[in-house]
């Protein structure tokens, strides 16, 4: 692992506001030391087992809905991850979102630099993320498009013009799909379909757009290090390159991209709400010889109107036989911990375990 002095030196050298893509464009053959991970973090994935794929067609018909709810219950409880197909969002919306993000990253560098920043002060920022706070950097550039739990939704005029229209359209569809998924997840917990929705779960949504350039030494780096998502639910769109892996029974498994699908994963907050009936699992993204890989996760983590609300396991799920596994906390306390800690630190969920 790189020494702290090497990290400081390397990250200053690297921090040209051109991001990881800037390194690739400069034609580097060896990746800087700040990206090199210890060998034990780079163990490979098992093949031939897929995370569940759930087909949402005919969701309104009684018997099929029961089956879908059952599939969601198993996937959320055993894997914490699943993919959904036939979700009703037109392919053109997904393609335009991806294209907008590609255009943003591949536009003239001087224009891109105007959006550069990592202090969280603006709704829309582009950077190599936690470059200065983590021991090892991820092989990716990230555009933050909104952090609605920290304030109001961003004014579309704050968004980069190349992806503004596509992002506004995309967010509308994400909110609709999230409503459907929260209904299914509520039913899978044995609750009324509107239970999670009426708690405000689908209110705030934050978008990140990751751009993972091709890497000259992918065997040494990660696109995004092992972590679980701190929020309630994540819906993720990825292009065809692949690299997302989930940890299941102590082994890494690939989440192979299926055209037109969304990856859905349970966040730490939903694991808490469900009192561990649903699992929030660790995942990571490998670096790859080919690229760019583009992904757009949309995180549902509550919004600014809920910051003073108490969160904890849902009362209806608690009984003598199923005692609470977490203590209650204020959402604002939790989110402050999530925002201030780098991905490899102690996650906020660990503070509330009983
Ligand atoms: O790019 C991906 O597939 C995963 C991104 C991710 O895990 C995250 O942003 O939390
Ligand atoms: Fe994640």
UniProtKB/TrEMBL annotation:
Gene3D superfamilies: B-lactam Antibiotic, Isopenicillin N Synthase, Chain (2.60.120.330). One of its GO terms (molecular function) is metal ion binding. PROSITE patterns: FE2OG_OXY. InterPro entries: DIOX_N (IPR026992), IPNS-like_FE2OG_OXY (IPR044861), IPNS-like_sf (IPR027443), Oxoglu/Fe-dep_dioxygenase_dom (IPR005123). Its cofactor is Fe cation. Keywords: Iron, Metal-binding, Oxidoreductase. It comes from the Eukaryota. Residues 203-302 form the Fe2OG dioxygenase domain. Belongs to the iron/ascorbate-dependent oxidoreductase family. PANTHER family: 1-AMINOCYCLOPROPANE-1-CARBOXYLATE OXIDASE HOMOLOG 1-LIKE, OXIDOREDUCTASE, 2OG-FE II OXYGENASE FAMILY PROTEIN. This is Fe2OG dioxygenase domain-containing protein. It comes from Hibiscus trionum (Flower of an hour). The lineage of its organism: Eukaryota, Viridiplantae, Streptophyta, Embryophyta, Tracheophyta.
């Amino acid at each position: 692992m790189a020494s702290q002095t090497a990290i400081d030196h390397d990250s200053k050298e690297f921090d040209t506001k051109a991001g990881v893509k800037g390194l690739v464009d400069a034609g580097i053959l060896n990746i800087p030391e700040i990206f090199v991970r210890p060998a034990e973090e780079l163990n490979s994935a098992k093949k031939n087992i897929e995370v569940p794929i759930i087909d949402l067609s005919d969701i309104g018909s009684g018997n099929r809905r029961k089956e879908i709810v059952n599939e969601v219950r198993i996937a959320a409880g055993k894997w914490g991850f699943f993919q959904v197909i036939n979700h009703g969002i037109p392919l053109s919306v997904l393609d335009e979102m991806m294209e907008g993000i590609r255009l943003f990253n591949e536009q003239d560098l001087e224009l891109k630099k105007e959006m550069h920043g990592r202090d969280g002060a603006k709704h829309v920022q582009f950077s190599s993320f936690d470059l200065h706070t983590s021991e090892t950097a991820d092989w990716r550039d990230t555009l933050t498009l909104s952090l609605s739990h920290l304030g109001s939704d961003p004014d579309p005029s704050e968004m980069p013009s190349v992806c503004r229209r596509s992002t506004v359209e995309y967010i509308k569809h994400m909110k609709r799909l999230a409503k459907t998924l929260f209904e299914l997840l509520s039913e899978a917990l044995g609750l009324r379909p509107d239970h999670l929705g009426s708690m405000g779960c689908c209110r705030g949504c934050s978008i990140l757009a990751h751009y993972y350039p091709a890497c000259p030494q992918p065997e040494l780096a990660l696109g995004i290090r092992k972590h679980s998502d701190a929020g309630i639910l994540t819906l993720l769109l990825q292009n065809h390159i692949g690299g997302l892996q989930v940890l299941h029974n102590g082994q890494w498994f690939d989440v192979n991209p299926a055209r037109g699908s969304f990856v859905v994963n349970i966040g730490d907050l939903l694991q808490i709400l469900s009192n561990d009936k649903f699992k929030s699992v660790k995942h990571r993204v490998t670096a790859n010889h080919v690229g760019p890989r583009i992904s757009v996760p949309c995180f549902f983590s509550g919004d600014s109107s809920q910051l003073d609300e108490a969160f904890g396991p849902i009362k209806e799920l608690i009984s003598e036989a199923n005692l609470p596994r977490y203590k209650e906390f204020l959402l604002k306390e939790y989110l402050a911990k999530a925002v201030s800690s780098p991905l490899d630190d102690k996650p906020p969920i660990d503070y509330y375990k009983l």
